[in-house]
Amino acid sequence: MTPLENVRLAAHCTLGVGGPARFFVEAHDEAAVLEALDWARARRLPIRVLGGGSNLVISDEGVDGLVMKIALRGVDAREAHGVVELTAAAGEPWDALVQLSVARGWAGFECLSGIPGLVGATPMQNVGAYGQDVSETVTLVRALDTTSRRIMTFENRECRFSYRDSLFRSHEPGRYVILSVAYRLRPGGSPTVRYADVEKDLAAREIDKPSLEDVRASVIAIRRSKSMVLDSKDSNGRSCGSFFTNPIIPDAELAAVESRTGDRAMPRWPLPGGQVKLSAAWLIERAGYTRGRADGPVGLSSRHALAIVAHDGARACDVVALARRIQTAVADRFGVRLTPEPVFWGVGAP
Ligand SMILES: Cc1cc2nc3c(=O)[nH]c(=O)nc-3n(C[C@H](O)[C@H](O)[C@H](O)COP(=O)(O)OP(=O)(O)OC[C@H]3O[C@@H](n4cnc5c(N)ncnc54)[C@H](O)[C@@H]3O)c2cc1C
Fold first, then answer.
1. How many CB atoms lie under 10 A from the CB of residue 269?
2. Which residues, other chains included, contact 148 with Cβ-Cβ below 8 Å and sequence gap of 6+?
3. Which of 47, 200, 295, 344 has the fewest other C-beta atoms within 10 Å?
4. Mean of per-residue pLDDT scores for the chain
5. In this predicted model, what pLDDT tens digit does every residue of 225-262 receive, in sequence order?
6. What does the alpha-carbon distance between residue 108 and residue 294 come to, in Å, rounded to a whole number?
7. 114 lines ligand 1 (CB under 6 A)
8. Is 127 near ligand 1, meaning CB less than 6 Å away?
């Protein structure tokens, strides 16, 4: 294996910031993943796994180690006993898999249309949107354990999925290289319509019995209106999607937060277990960080207050500094801590 040297990582992530990888390799099969691991170990270098780079903030100094771009491909589908078991290699583009499933009439992914990135990253943060998340369909995750060099298989409950989180993301970060993911879908199943925006879009198109294709079209249209699909012509195009997760607080704290906002219409979604989810975007705007607000070469998307966007000349440190200012404003005004959604390489999470 001969890795490339000094490869510009900004070109490999959607935010378009970040310094070089000292070494860089593309792994097209499982043997290449193992070889890359051994190569890095022999040189005592850290190894970083790169998918589509759509949930990453990479430091301006780059990565002093080996970056392995996941390029494993292959999709297999088996239909039996009224379900489809769909297995995809980690390097398959996620939205192409969604498109294929919708076209075949397999329900379960339709609300996850238009999300950038690759299959292997979907279990990482339990990718979700518009009323679905992958933990509802993932059955098995096949992964290389970088500590033991063994290939492991995780069943759904072993993945410890929760809201934008999993075993792979926060319990044992960096330990596993996901090689493939198996999902269970419902052939001929009805689409999920749980989200008011989706209902509204369908109603506007006078669709009362939506197909999977209809829901996919609505989700993509809504996402596009919020600059939440990748589009190189969009001035909000350089982002990693939502920069913060929606904060979850105990019920007991709700009244205090509401009174600090001075607005009884503050959006909230009750959760089981005495907790409530708030809207990060709403809190950010109320704290004075309105859509489109610029801060040097970075700023907030003009179409969604949750996305930090990078413009020409932006650096990772500018992105992180803005994220910190937003966090401080929301904490000072409302006593709520915002947790960043992306993964940070070489730079402390704000
Ligand atoms: C415009 C836009 C909209 C978005 N909308 C959503 C949304 O609606 N919902 C949502 O959940 N996310 C959303 N995201 C975030 C992002 O697209 C997802 O989190 C996606 O799953 C990241 O995939 P990736 O391949 O780009 O991962 P990367 O950004 O390359 O990597 C993210 C993390 O996963 C790790 N990783 C990646 N692949 C593997 C692997 N095979 N094995 C082990 N670790 C791995 C990386 O090391 C890193 O820690 C959005 C992003 C953008 C830019």
1. 11
2. none
3. 200
4. 96
5. 999 999 989 999 999 999 999 999 999 999 999 999 99
6. 38
7. no
8. yes
